[in-house]
Amino acid sequence: MTKRSLVQALADDRQPGGWAEFAAALAGHSSLGSALTMRGVQASRPSLYALTDELAKVQIPVLVLAGDEDDGCLEPALMLKRTIPTSGLAVLPRTGHTANLEEPDVFNRAVDRFLAAVARGAWHSRDPRSVSDSTMGLR
Fold first, then answer.
1. Is the pLDDT higher at 31 or at 22?
2. At what angle do helices 18-27 and 6-14 cross, to 10 degrees?
C-alpha cells in the first residue's frame, strides 16, 4: 500500500473517490504540455505581489477562496482581499489546496452565494471605513 498525502486522505474522507478522479484527470494531461506550461507560463509570470497596483483597479466582483490548511495560499489570499476593492474572501476550514475536491459542498455553496449576490446586484466595493491597520479600527 502506498503512503497517501494529507490532501489525498482528506479528499477521500470527504468525497470518496474524489482524489482518484482528480489524479486520473491530471495523469491524462500531456507530459510535454505540462512541462511547457510550467516553463513558459508559471515560471515566467510575475508574482501577484508585483501586480498590486493593477489589482487595486479591478472593479468586477471577485471571490477569493482558500483552504485554511493551504499555507502557501493564505497570505496571497489575504493580500488579494486587501488589494482588490470588489473582493470577498472565503476561507474553508480544515481544507487544503484542492478545496473543490476536499469540500465540494462547502465550496459550491460559497460560489453559489457569491454568484447570487452578484446577480442581484448586492456585491459592492469594500466600504473604505473598514480599511484599517488596527484591530480596533483606529487609524
1. 31
2. 120
- Distance (Å, whole) CA 60 – CA 37: 27
- Domains of the chain (ranges, CATH numbers): 6-130 (3.40.50.1820)
Question: What are phi and psi for residue 123, nearest 5 degrees?
Answer: -100, 110
Q: Which residues of 15-34 are buried (b: 16+ CB within 10 A; e: fewer)?
A: beebbeebeeeeeeeeeeee
| Distance in angstroms (rounded) separating the CA atoms of residues 97 and 6 | 11
How many C-beta atoms surround the C-beta of residue 124 within 10 A? 10
Asked if 95 and 3 touch (Cβ cutoff 8 Å), the reply is no
Please check the confidence at residue 5 and state whether its pLDDT lies above 80.
Answer: no
